[in-house]
Fold this protein.
Amino acid sequence: MADEQKQQLQWIYDSHKEYRRTLAHLPFEEKIKILIQMQRDFAAFHPDTVCIWEEDAVESDKKSI
Amino acid sequence: MPDKNSTMNQDGGLVSVTRVLQIANEMEAMGIIGKYAIAGSIAVIYYSEPIETHDFDIFYIHNTPPGQLVLLSPLYDFFRMKGLQASGYTVQIGGIPVQIVPAIDALDTEAIEQSIEIEIYQVKTRIVSLEHLIAMKLSAGRPKDFAHLTLLLDHVQPSQGVFQSILKRFTLTDKWEDYRRKFYGG
């Protein structure tokens, strides 16, 4: 593998690692929002999926319910 | 295609995770389950990064003597009263398949007893400690458990004193060393 390719792969790996670290530091509630988005993305490719969680209403929504 | 969000979450709850926690708290307060704690993939997400999952695992302590079947009828009666659909250990709450599972061994029981109080969506709840979660994953030993372990250890490290003590008490030291050798080369 050429040095340039190796550098590119290393850059992708480092960026991904940094991105994952950012995700890990999010508040739990934000992680759940990402999880729900993952479920929706999954369902887009697998139409027979019957499980998508419902997003939690924010505090202002709860008051209006 | 029908909007799955609008057709699936018809148990009266507009908030899902909040509702799961409220139901669990209510069951514990009514004595239908013993002390409970969040475990499984949701605990992995809590300590690390979001991963794709559909289940929400809740482990609880029960007082059934060893070797006897844990009776689920009180849980089913409660679910019926709430209008929730249940099958096996799984109950649908706000569109979430929630597995409400009795502790099956001493490790589960200790994990629940020593779980940590947290607040999610302003609801008080409990989650197993990182050290117990790692031990539970190690003990379960399925491929997905090892994947979860690796994910966890990418982000957080257990408190060594506590962790080593858990490994020793539940005879998991060899499994831990095997795992370290396979995935980290030593």
User: Anything to note?
Assistant: Residues 57-65 of chain A have pLDDT under 50 and may be disordered. The interface with chain B takes residues 20-21, 23-24, 26, 28-29, 31-32, 34-35, 38-39, 42-43, 47, 49-57, 59, 61-62, 65 of chain A (CB under 8 Å).
